């Protein structure tokens, strides 16, 4: 028997702010969603800190019983909702980008982001598997941002979930800029081309794969995204610039800003249909809609969408070699 549930997706401006301030902003939007009858509320990737490549990320990683996880469980209980959101989670000696899903009865589920890319690797390590939360609402598949680029991970959810819960901070690199202290600017695509050997260039898939994969699973999707524009440094940039046509600017690397907006990633939709609700590109906000769940997790429809995976000959891998030592050192200090 098919049934309907009311869901909400919350978008938050990605600019860094102290954790208590960001939790307070999220709490106001959660209260609005719950008042309007939402049973499932989804927050973006790294909702409790904002999106930034910065040394302080190591210190912002929390334990599973830390401030943010405790707050999420309290919010779920207070509003009688299921609440999902992503944070940097410290687990023994390692740090993960973890999606937590809290139920009103105190149960929680954890998904460590599996498919990490680019400068993310300087701040956390990858998880290992898909996570299906068997909740009172149904079986919910969890993904964090670039997880959606992994066809193997999507396959692990096929035929096993009633809906997908997606948490995003998808940087819009196509229109991002690197700004050097002397005023020189270069677009991110030009920068990537300049520092990647010609025989290793491979753009890989874009974030539009999400829509097609959710349709393939034949289930609804609830996606919460970051908004706004961030200015952030890029760790390891000096090393990356050396030996390229930008090598003369390597000495300025510590003072270079990446200025980047975010792709619009806040949406709610039933399988294979136009979105029931969509967010905006800027500011905080909440959208809500009613989604329809099948009685049993449906089988996938037709063949799995075909997208080239992020291969080991991409710019992503080129950056990865520089990020791992930075992660090890930062996590050790933490």
Helix fraction?
Answer: 10-25%
**Rg value:** 20 Å
Instruction: Note the run of SSEs as H and E.
Output: EHEHHEEEEEHEEEHHEEEHEEEEH
Low-confidence stretches: 199-207
Silhouette: globular
Summarize the structure.
With 334 residues, the chain is an alpha/beta fold.
Task: Kindly describe this structure.
25% of the residues lie in helices and 26% in strands. It starts with a strand and ends with a helix. Strands 1, 2, 3, 4, 5, 12 and 17 form a seven-stranded mixed beta sheet that branches. It is of the alpha/beta class. Helix 1 (19-35) packs parallel to helix 3 (67-79). It has one domain (3-170, 206-227, 262-333): Nitrilase/N-carbamoyl-D-aminoacid amidohydrolase (4-Layer Sandwich), CATH 3.60.110. It has eight helices and 17 strands. The protein has helices spanning 19-35, 57-60, 67-79, 151-157, 188-195, 209-217, 237-241, 315-333, and strands at 3-13, 40-42, 82-91, 94-102, 108-112, 131-134, 139-144, 163-167, 177-179, 185-187, 221-224, 226-227, 229-232, 257-261, 267-269, 277-278, 285-293.
């Amino acid at each position: 028997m098919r049934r309907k549930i009311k869901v909400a997706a919350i978008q938050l401006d990605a600019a860094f702010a102290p954790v208590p301030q960001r939790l307070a902003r999220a709490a106001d939007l959660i209260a609005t969603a719950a008042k309007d009858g939402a049973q499932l509320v989804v927050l973006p990737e790294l909702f409790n800190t904002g999106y930034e490549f910065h040394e302080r990320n190591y210190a912002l990683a929390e334990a599973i019983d830390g401030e943010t996880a405790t707050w999420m469980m309290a919010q779920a209980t207070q509003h009688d909702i299921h609440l999902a959101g992503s944070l940097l989670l410290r687990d023994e000696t390692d740090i993960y980008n973890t999606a937590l899903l809290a139920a009103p009865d105190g149960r929680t589920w954890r998904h460590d982001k599996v498919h990490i890319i680019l400068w993310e690797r300087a701040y956390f390590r990858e998880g290992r598997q898909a996570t299906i939360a068997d909740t009172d609402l149904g079986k919910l598949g969890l993904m964090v941002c670039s997880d959606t680029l992994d066809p193997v991970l999507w396959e692990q959810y096929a035929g096993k979930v009633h809906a997908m819960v997606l948490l995003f901070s998808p940087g819009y690199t196509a229109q991002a800029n690197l700004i050097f202290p002397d005023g020189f600017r270069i677009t991110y695509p030009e920068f990537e081309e300049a520092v990647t050997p010609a025989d290793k260039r491979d753009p890989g898939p874009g974030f539009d794969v999400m829509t097609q994969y959710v349709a393939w699973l034949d289930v609804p999707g609830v996606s919460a995204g970051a908004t706004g524009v961030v200015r952030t440094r890029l760790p390891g940039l000096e090393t990356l610039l050396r030996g390229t046509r930008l090598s003369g600017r390597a000495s300025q690397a510590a003072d270079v800003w990446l200025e980047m907006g975010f792709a619009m990633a806040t949406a709610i939709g039933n399988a294979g249909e136009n979105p029931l609700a969509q967010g905006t590109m800027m500011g905080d906000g909440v959208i809500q809609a009613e989604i329809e769940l099948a009685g049993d997790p449906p089988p996938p429809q037709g063949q799995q969408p075909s997208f080239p995976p992020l291969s080991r000959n991409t710019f992503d891998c080129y950056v990865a070699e520089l990020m791992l030592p930075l992660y090890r050192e930062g996590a050790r200090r933490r």
